[in-house]
Design goal:
By secondary structure, the protein is mainly β. The chain has one domain: Beta Barrel (Porin), CATH 2.40.160. It contains one helix and 16 strands. β14 and β15 form a beta hairpin. The longest helix has 15 residues. The termini are far apart.
Length: 255
Amino acid sequence: MMKKYVMCAVMGLFCGSMTSNAQEKANLSVSADVVSHYMWRGKDKAGFSVQPKVEASWKGVSLKAYGSAGVEKDDPQELNLGLSYKQGGFNVGVTDYWQTGVDKENRYLYYDTHEGGHQYEANLGFTCKLFSLQAYTMFGGNDFKLNGDRAYSTYIELGVPFKLGGFDWETKVGVTPMESAGRWEVLRRYNRDYGWSDVNTRVYDYGKAFTCCMASLRCTKNLDLGVIRMPVFAEVHANPYLSKTTLLFGLSIVP
C-alpha cells in the first residue's frame, strides 16, 4: 500500500515547503515538444506526438508534469509526474510513469502492480559541461520479469554534448546491466511456405541481459522568435539490441 502513495507523499512535502516561506519565489515554466516519432530509451513508443510539460522549481527542487499524446488511435497516451532535486552537478529524483494500453480500462487512479499502468522510478545522476551520466531504476508498480519476480528494470545513460558547424550536438549511449521487465506478445509473421501465423514473442523493456539498448545522435538549432524560443532538432535513434534505427525530427516551443 505504501507504494500507492509514494508520489502523493513526496508531492505533499514539496508543496508544503513551497508555501512555508512566502519570501521565496518559485519559477514556473511551460513548454511543449512536437516530434515526428516518439522514441524513448530505444523503445518505439508512438508515431507523431505532442508532448507538453509544466515545471515548478524552487531552491533546486523541481516538480513537473509531462506527457505524450499520439495522433494515431492505437498510440499510447502518457501522463508522468516527477519530483527532483539538484545541487551543483548532482541530481536525484523519483518519477511516476503512467500510460494507456496496460490497464484495459485505462484508469489513472488504479494502482494494481500487475495490471495497472503505473511504474515508479528512482533516478541519480551527475551533469557537467563535458558529459551527463544518469542511472534510472524502477522500484515499484508494473515492472516484472517473465517468471513473476520484480525486475527492478535499470537503465544507465551517458550523454556527451558538443558544438559543430553552428549547431548544438549531443550523442548518447544507454545500457541495461541486467534482465528488465518482460512480457509475452503475439505477433503476426509471414512465412512464404506457410503464410501468416501468430507467434509468441518475448518482449523486454530494455533487454534480457546486459546490453546496449540505445544509441543516438541529435543535432539542434535554437531559433529565437522573440516571445518564444523554438529549438529545432533532428535525431538518429538506434536500438543495437533490436537492430533498429529511426530518424526523427522535432521542435520545442518554449515561451
